[in-house]
Write a structure and sequence with these properties.
This protein starts with a helix and ends with a helix. It is elongated. It contains 7 helices and no strands. It is mostly helical.
Length: 144
């Protein structure tokens, strides 16, 4: 019985699929990865932009940042904006702060905030966005 139990556990652990990345790679020079990474990056920036709804943030970033190293994909901006809207509309509400020394005013201020950066970054790294970007790239190749 123990052997069967261990066998089942080992099979279960081997069948689990995890998102693994040994190191950060932006994949410069690989056309398909360039396009997919750019798509995902544009979704991330759009998500941040919609989450904060404050143009001055991007004005500050633009002073030092070139954003993405590829040609923009103008044909996908409607889809990108739709995805970003969906992410921001479904953002997790903040957890009620559990602090003994917080005043009611401080707790209310915390509840006005949200997890914008974390949500957008997690969506960027999600398999869902990977899949959407790959489908969009295949569609792009067909129209090209």
């Amino acid at each position: 019985m123990k052997n069967i139990f261990f066998f089942v556990i080992i099979c279960f652990m081997c069948s689990c699929d995890t998102y693994k990345r040994n190191k950060f790679e932006y994949h410069f020079g690989k056309k398909d990865n360039e396009w997919i990474n750019m798509y995902k990056t544009e979704v991330f920036f759009s998500c941040i932009n919609k989450g904060y709804n404050e143009k001055s943030i991007f004005d500050l970033i633009e002073k030092k940042d070139l954003f993405v190293p590829y040609e923009p994909i103008y044909t996908e901006y409607n889809n990108i904006d739709t995805l970003a809207d969906k992410v921001i509309k479904n953002i997790t509400k903040p957890i009620y702060p559990h602090c003994d020394d917080c005043t009611e005013k401080e707790k209310n201020e915390i509840l006005k905030k949200n997890y914008i950066c974390a949500t957008c970054l997690n969506y960027y790294a999600s398999k869902e966005l990977d899949s959407i970007a790959k489908k969009a790239y295949k569609k792009y190749l067909k129209t090209k």
